[in-house]
C-alpha cells in the first residue's frame, strides 16, 4: 500500500469510529474505494494487517449497508469486492441506509408517542416538543428524497449556489 493510500485508509478508519462504524470496517471501505481493481478478503487482511475473520465480518457489514458489490472473477473461487465508481452513488446509498436505520425508527417512535393521550401538563408539553421535532425531521426527510431525484450534476450546481443563497437571505 502506498503512503498516500495508507494515510487515507488510516484516517478513514479513525473517522469511521466517529461515524458509528468499526475502525477496521472504515479502513476496509477506504481501501476498497481507492482500489482500481476488485479486492478479495485475503488481500484486505494482508494489506490492513487484520485477521481474516475480522475482514469477513467487516465485508458482511459493508454488504448490509449496500456499500460494496460482490464480484466473481472467472477461474477464481474467491469473492471479490468493489465500491461504486460514482461518489454520488456512495453518498446516496449512505443517506438511504442511515435513513432506514436511524431516521425511520425514530419517526415511528415519535408517531406512537404523539398518538398517546397526555397524562399531565408536562406530558402535554413534551408532546408539543416531540411534534416540533417530528415535523422538522419529516421536512428534512422529504427534502432529502427530493434532492435524491436530482442528477449528480444538478446536486453539485445546487450546492455551489449555497454561498450565493446565504448572501441573498443574509
From TrEMBL:
Pfam families to which the protein is assigned, alphabetical: MarR_2
Domain HTH marR-type: 32-78
Annotated GO MF terms: DNA binding; DNA-binding transcription factor activity
Superkingdom classification of source: Bacteria
Gene3D superfamilies per UniProt: Winged helix-like DNA-binding domain superfamily/Winged helix DNA-binding domain
Keywords, sorted A to Z: DNA-binding, Transcription, Transcription regulation
Family under the similarity heading: Belongs to the GbsR family.
Listed name of the protein: HTH-type transcriptional regulator
Source species of the chain: Gilvimarinus xylanilyticus
